[in-house]
Amino acid sequence: MRRTFSFVPFVVAFIVLTGTPAKVKEITHREATPATRVEIEAGAKPSEVLLPEPGKTGPLSLEEAIAKRRSVREFKDDPVRLIELSQLLWAAQGITGEDGFKRAAPSAGAKYPLEIFVVAGRVDGLTSGIYHYEPDSHSLTAVKLGDFREELCGEALGQKWVEEASLSIVIAAVYERTMEKYGERGVRYVHMEVGFVAENIYLQTESLALGTTFVGAFSDGGVKKLLKMDGMEPLGIMPVGVKQQ
Ligand SMILES: Cc1cc2nc3c(=O)[nH]c(=O)nc-3n(C[C@H](O)[C@H](O)[C@H](O)COP(=O)(O)O)c2cc1C
Questions:
Q1: What whole-number distance in Å separates Cα of residue 110 and Cα of residue 191?
Q2: Which distant-in-sequence residues (6+ apart) come within 8 Å of 61 by Cβ?
Q3: What is the pTM of this model?
Q4: Rounded CA separation 235/182 (Å)
Q5: Which of 81, 98, 141, 147 has a Cα-to-Cα distance from 31 of 20 to 30 A?
Q6: Is residue 108 helix, strand or coil?
Q7: Among the atoms of ligand 1, which is closest to the Cα of residue 71?
């Protein structure tokens, strides 16, 4: 039998790890878009990007963050930094329990049905692409590389803030994890959990002087196809960028 050898995982790992970090002031929307699009082959070892350690203190009190939170739909061209993305993902689904299991947002029966994706287009220190967040290792694995914000915007009925934001966090759910224990009632628990995660992201963006909006209007099938989701349903898109003051 002839053995085949695929270079794709190595090429992807190289691009992800050496992706030219964006320079804050010089960057423009177009310059930040790499031309290369790389599909990750099914079964290929995923390329992993370890995220910087998130902080546990911040400049804004919880009360100030709640008071200032608004849905933001206009963003500057400045990129979001990798440390900020790390902080947002930690707030969404990061492991916070000393047992190494429990997460930042509550979950019925600690079943953790939610999966988090990032569609990154202008993140300083991260190659543009679609990534899946791994809470256990606080890392990202690449789904595909390239700037897919325009396509995501198309799937979100052309809401332009999805294309203009530096990145979008996409919240998806594997309903069975919760329904196994709670039956039909599990559906409402999953939807409640999306709300907890989204509010954590809203408050964390406020604390980082970034902005976001929860977007619920999108094509389920289109988002699933674009993000190569298998066995899960997309439930929310949160475009994130540096907000206009
Ligand atoms: C479930 C849900 C779905 C939403 N969907 C969208 C959306 O598709 N597009 C959008 O621009 N805003 C969307 N929003 C944001 C609301 O428009 C916004 O929260 C509301 O106007 C109140 O403003 P505030 O968030 O600034 O307080 C959604 C909010 C929620 C809670």
A1: 14
A2: none
A3: 0.87
A4: 19
A5: 141
A6: helix
A7: 26
Tokens in use for 62? 């919880």
The residue with tokens 């794709």 is 8
C-alpha distances in Å from residue 143, one per residue of 22, 106, 228, 229: 21, 27, 7, 10
Confidence of residue 212 (pLDDT cuts 50, 70, 90): very high
The tokens for 198 are 């989204």
User: Relative to the CA of 198, which ligand 1 atom is closest?
Assistant: 31
pLDDT tens readout for residues 75-117: 999 999 999 999 999 999 999 999 999 999 999 999 999 999 9
Ligand 1: residues within 6 Å at CB?
70-71, 73, 159, 213-217
CATH code at 28-241: 3.40.109.10
Q: What amino acid is encoded at 68 in this protein?
A: K
